[in-house]
């Protein structure tokens, strides 16, 4: 007979001042930060890595097949301006403001360049 064992791990103990929110954040793998000496190929690669998180909603290469707006075909300037507006709160949204706040202006520029140049490539 197969028996299952469940372990319950509390987020905090009654009377304790240590809560789950106090725990260190898990390590994440990030693309290397841009530097002035970084060559253009590395910058494009970093933009592509940063843009991966966009595909969950906006589709592969920004080509949405749902009600989410497509990013594909938009200019670099348009995408960068929109993301910066989301980040500052100048452009209202339900989710995008929270996403954009997680990126530096430099990272936003790299993401915008990545998507802005996709439609310029020959298929």
From TrEMBL:
Residues 1-20 form the signal peptide. Residues 41-119 form the Cytochrome c domain. Coiled coil: none annotated. It comes from the Bacteria. GO terms for molecular function: electron transfer activity; heme binding; metal ion binding. The keyword Repeat does not apply. Keywords: Electron transport, Heme, Iron, Metal-binding, Signal, Transport. Pfam families: Cytochrom_C (PF00034). The keyword Electron transport applies. InterPro entries: Cyt_c-like_dom, Cyt_c-like_dom_sf, Cytochrome_c_Oxidase_Subunit. This is Sulfide dehydrogenase. It comes from Chlorobaculum thiosulfatiphilum.
């Amino acid at each position: 007979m197969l028996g299952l064992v469940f372990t319950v791990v509390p987020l905090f103990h009654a009377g304790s001042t240590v809560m789950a929110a106090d725990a260190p954040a898990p390590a994440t793998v990030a693309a290397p930060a841009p530097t002035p000496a970084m060559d253009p190929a590395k910058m494009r690669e970093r933009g592509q890595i940063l843009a991966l998180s966009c595909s969950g909603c906006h589709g592969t290469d920004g080509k949405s097949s749902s009600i989410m707006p497509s990013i594909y075909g938009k200019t670099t300037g348009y995408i960068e301006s929109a993301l910066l507006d989301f980040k500052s709160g100048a452009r209202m949204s339900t989710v995008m403001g929270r996403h954009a706040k997680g990126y530096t202006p430099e990272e936003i520029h790299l993401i915008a360049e990545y998507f802005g140049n996709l439609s310029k490539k020959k298929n």
